[in-house]
Design goal:
It contains 6 helices and 20 strands. It is of the alpha+beta class and about 280 residues long. The strands form 4 sheets. Strands 1, 2, 3, 4, 7, 10, 11, 12, 13, 14 and 15 form an 11-stranded mixed beta sheet that branches. The termini are close together. The model has no long low-confidence stretch (mean pLDDT about 90).
Length: about 280
């Protein structure tokens, strides 16, 4: 069996627990892309079996988040689950925030939260932070495609829509926007509403998957997760490729969705006319 489950994780549940529910339901190993913090909800793509090999080819896809930031204080985790480390009486106006957001569009350097899975000398940042170890994380380049202020919830809470590339930390944006408007900010709510082709419309909530008598109906074919052009092989061409015999098939350089007749085999890459399977999911 192969395919993706677009799992919708509720607030308060760990990503590990959510993915385990898929493993148990299908009785096979699974992998997931883009871990969500327990306080976050939304889209968590899970690949069944060898389908997870395709994740490397999905990392460049855009993601969309709905987030709420609270201004006036900050915490050690940069979200409302952490311990308050500083406060300020300065609360920005809607107009001040909207003016600041333009500085975050495009490629920017961002320092990840210390409470994150970012590695420092072989240790996860959150492991070091919980142990009280002092350390610094280096800035990383991320890409923000769109950043809009949608609504003011109350005096110090604002709601945003953020469209970005993979690797962006929304908690860090809360901190950085707070600094930009001469205040302090933390993330108070987060929902991932889209990741590539996966969105709220084609997803299934964890509880609905667990209760389903026909979980296969939620499978998304792996070939639908990418939009590369199609390379369709004959049986002879497929057999030769699997045996390490590579012929010039005339395909232009680039990535392809490879089919043997009508069966999807995975992601292939053509270079100088030679096609090789890079992520075999059959």
């Amino acid at each position: 069996m192969k395919g993706f489950i677009n799992l919708l994780k509720p607030e308060g549940m760990s990503s590990a627990y959510a993915v385990t529910s898929v493993k148990k339901k299908f009785n096979m190993p699974c992998g997931h892309m883009g871990t969500l913090d327990p306080m976050a909800s939304g889209v968590l793509p899970v690949g069944l079996g060898h389908t997870s090999r395709m994740f490397d080819y999905l990392l460049d896809k855009s993601k969309t988040y709905k987030a709420q930031f609270q201004f006036g204080y900050t915490t050690d985790t940069l979200d409302v689950t952490g311990q308050t480390t500083d406060k300020t009486s300065v609360i920005p106006t809607k107009e001040q925030i909207e003016k600041a957001l333009g500085d975050f569009i495009g490629e920017i350097d961002q320092i990840p939260p210390k409470y994150s899975a970012k590695c420092v000398n072989g240790k996860r940042g959150y492991q070091l932070a919980r142990s009280g170890v002092e350390f610094e994380l280096q800035p990383k380049r991320v890409c923000i495609l769109d950043f809009t202020l949608d609504n003011q919830i109350d005096q110090n809470t604002f709601e945003f829509t953020i469209k970005c590339k993979g690797g962006t930390y929304i908690r860090s944006l809360a901190r950085d926007v707070g600094e930009k408007v001469n205040s302090l900010g933390v993330m108070s709510k987060l929902a991932r509403v889209q990741s590539g082709i996966f969105n709220l419309d084609n997803g299934v909530w964890v509880t609905d998957l667990i209760d389903s008598d026909n979980p296969q109906k939620y499978l998304i074919p792996p070939e639908n997760a990418v939009d590369f052009p199609i390379a369709r092989l004959t049986d002879r061409q497929a057999t030769r490729i699997l045996n390490g015999l590579f012929d010039n098939l005339g395909y232009a350089d680039g990535l392809y969705r490879v089919f043997n007749q009508n069966e999807f085999w995975g992601i292939g890459q053509s270079k100088d006319g030679i096609l090789r399977i890079k992520a075999y999911v059959r």
